[in-house]
Write a structure and sequence with these properties.
By secondary structure, this protein is an alpha+beta fold. It is built from 7 helices and 24 strands. Strands 12, 13, 14, 15, 16, 17, 18 and 19 form an 8-stranded antiparallel sheet that branches. Strands 5-4-21-20-24-11 form a 6-stranded mixed sheet. Strands 7-10-8-9-22-23 form a 6-stranded mixed sheet, with helices on one face. Helix 2 runs parallel beside helix 3 and helix 5 packs parallel to helix 7.
Length: 384
């Protein structure tokens, strides 16, 4: 496998002069995966993206808008970050579907699984719109239609801290309200994966007394938004963005070893409700979480350790890093330290590309796959 990484100049939107160098057309082919990460503003002027796509007409194109683009140990905004990975012993196939509304998330996921499923399918990488989606239902439909051995990872597109417009690339053009996925086929590809947060619980455990899908209405019989604002204090005026600093940990019962983390995407003042990136099951228990920079960096290191263990990585690999925008908000000027931390754990010579997201998708080590929030999620690729 050969991997090349590129980044446009800051603010590049149109002309070729925004690129130091464009991908070599000799890299083009049906077994070449092109990952493209950029700002939501590309919806209005995709010219810089068009330059990349036009030069690689036979490659599999996958990409999304972000809350920051990752290249090795650095993070950038207002630019494009591109990976061109040429696989030598692995077949690729892409599937895309429109998502008209969040209620159809499960059906869309199941449809993508039906398109990609095959006996030699090893892994699926999925990128999807970051708003107007029930991420947990999408993942349930997708993973439920695949063999248990298939590794599923990916993430939800971002839009900085605006939570307004996100895009993915279903047909070589950035579009809103779509889900895209690529399947990897064959037995020569080693996939590692790891997802970890570093957040800690604070405050009492509360019962989800009223919810519907990804919308939370009541905790312990009280309006959820009003209760949430009490914990945020002066930061409540910045919702939904400031809610990224205080995610919810959900568990089916006290002492459960399966815990899901959910991040608020939108709030409804009239209904006093909050919409999250994934399902909030009624009857489950919810606890608020918070973290320091040190704890989040420790979480990123743990994700890298898990990826090495599961991928049996010794030599340098290609690492796809998908981290939550909420982590970036907490880490602030220290954000690049979590990227440095993953590369310090991964094998020497590893290259890393990725983005800051509205949700992370990863298998959890027991065969199941979940939507996560507030994690660093790594997927590593290596061809034997």
């Amino acid at each position: 496998m050969r991997a090349e990484l590129y980044r446009s100049a800051s603010g590049a939107r149109t002309a070729t002069s925004g690129w130091d160098i464009l991908p070599d057309s000799a890299l083009d082919g049906p077994s070449t995966l092109v990952l493209v990460f950029g700002d939501s503003a590309l919806l209005d002027n995709p010219s810089a993206l068009d330059e990349i796509i036009a030069g690689l007409p036979n490659s599999v194109i996958l990409g999304c808008s972000t809350a920051g683009q990752i290249l090795d140990e650095s993070i950038s905004d207002d630019c494009l970050t591109v990976l061109v990975a040429c696989f030598e012993k692995t077949r690729l196939a892409k599937a895309s579907a429109e998502l008209p509304n969040a209620d159809q998330s499960y059906e869309v996921g199941a449809g993508l699984a039906a398109t990609l499923q095959a006996d030699d399918l090893t892994a699926v990488l999925v990128l999807c719109c970051g708003v107007g989606i029930n991420g947990s239902e999408l993942v349930r439909g997708l993973s439920g239609g695949l063999n248990e051995s298939v590794i599923v990872t990916g993430g939800l597109a971002g839009d900085g801290t605006s939570f307004d417009r996100t895009w993915v690339i279903p047909d070589r053009t950035p579009r809103e309200s779509f889900v895209t996925a690529v399947g990897f086929y064959g037995d020569r590809l080693q996939i590692g994966y790891g997802s970890s947060g570093g957040w800690v619980i604070f405050g009492p455990e509360r019962l989800v007394t009223r919810s519907q899908g990804s919308v939370l209405y009541e905790l312990d019989g009280e309006p959820a938004l009003a209760l949430y604002k009490k914990y945020l204090g002066d930061m409540a005026g910045g919702l939904p963005a400031t809610g990224m600093r205080f995610p919810l940990a959900l568990s089916e019962y006290s002492g459960s070893n399966r815990e899901l983390v959910r991040t608020v995407l939108t709030v409804d003042e009239q209904q006093q409700s909050m919409t999250f990136a994934g399902e909030i099951p009624q009857g489950w228990l919810a606890k608020l979480m918070r973290a320091s920079s040190y704890e989040l960096i420790d979480g990123a290191e743990e994700a890298a350790r898990l990826a090495i263990e599961r991928g049996q990585s010794v030599d340098a690999v290609l690492s796809l890093a998908i981290s939550c925008v909420g982590r970036r908000m907490v880490l602030g000027e220290n954000t690049e330290e979590e990227l440095e931390a993953t590369l310090e754990i991964l094998p020497p010579g590893t290259r890393q590309v990725g983005f800051y997201s509205y949700g992370e998708i990863s298998s959890n080590g027991s065969g199941a796959c979940d939507l996560h929030n507030q994690t660093m999620t790594l997927t590593t690729f290596y061809e034997r």
